[in-house]
Amino acid sequence: MAKKRILSGMQPSGLLHLGNYYGALKNWIELQEQFECFYFVADWHSLTTLYEDPSHIKKYTFEVAVDWLSAGLDPGKSTLFVQSRIPEHAELHLILSMVVPVPWLERNPTYKEKQVEVKNVDMSSYGFLGYPVLQTADIVLYNADYVPVGIDQAPHLEISREIVRRFNGLYKKKVFKEPQAKISEIPKLNGIDGRKMSKSYNNAIYLSDTEKDITKKVKAMLTDPARGLRTDPGDPDVCNLFPFHKLYSPEDMQKEIDRDCRTAALGCGDCKLKLVDTMLEGLRPHMERRREIAAKPREVEEILEEGTRKAQKVAKATLDRAKQAIKF
Ligand code: SF4
Fold first, then answer.
1. Which of 90, 100, 179, 242 is least buried, going by the fewest C-beta atoms within 10 A?
2. Average pLDDT, rounded, for the chain
3. Residue ranges of the domains in the chain?
């Protein structure tokens, strides 16, 4: 039986951090064992926020690909490609944009939230309003069965499903497949200051960080804010650092920390040193692979070229079907 198909993308708007790894990449790596996966660098999407200075998008496209490969995406199992190298994405975006009512896009909660959240860029662009249409083109070009999402992002896919229904209904042909959400559990992992891990908050631990960077960042991490004195008992359940122990430290160490924190037998300084040790041990193989892969940019480029060739064949066939449906 043919494998079901997965489609997902990541914007090259900065270096990838642990939030990106645990929030998406780790899941992508697992999914490639069971599904036929298409993963793309969403460089056109990153223009929605970086249109004023797009000069780093190309560099980050390479860095994202290096992170993917060093984390474990396997070009033998997954098709890895760059969105802007396949013009079919733009062409289908244009065709779909003709059938999408503007109020559908204006209702999109992300559109409204970003107008408030993003302070340094004017997010009232036509391109940003229409990003769900481009996203729909990205998905349906590959006849994706599933799009991996966290539980809170599942509604984001609904607009793509509505667009598919509208197009198929208008032209009375099942040209596109309605994508389903593939929901995965995402561990809660904040940045070193306790806010959502993000490049823009300058609080992220990057997959490309050195041992020195990681040590410095762990030592600067916010812990239980109520623990003012070393002699005050702490609470790992509200501590910003403890979730990292859950990911990197052995279970017996986690239990010991949980117990000793609550009785103040363990201070935050020592707890951080334990985390530095376990985290570096966990991340060292990735760091090593990253160094090796980044030293061979030609090979990375060949992987993206090969993936782009393979993806474009599928995209072209879908776009041809869409054009037949509209009698072009
Ligand atoms: S001892 Fe560890 S778990 Fe407890 S508050 Fe400090 S850093 Fe957090």
1. 90
2. 95
3. 5-189+297-325, 199-291
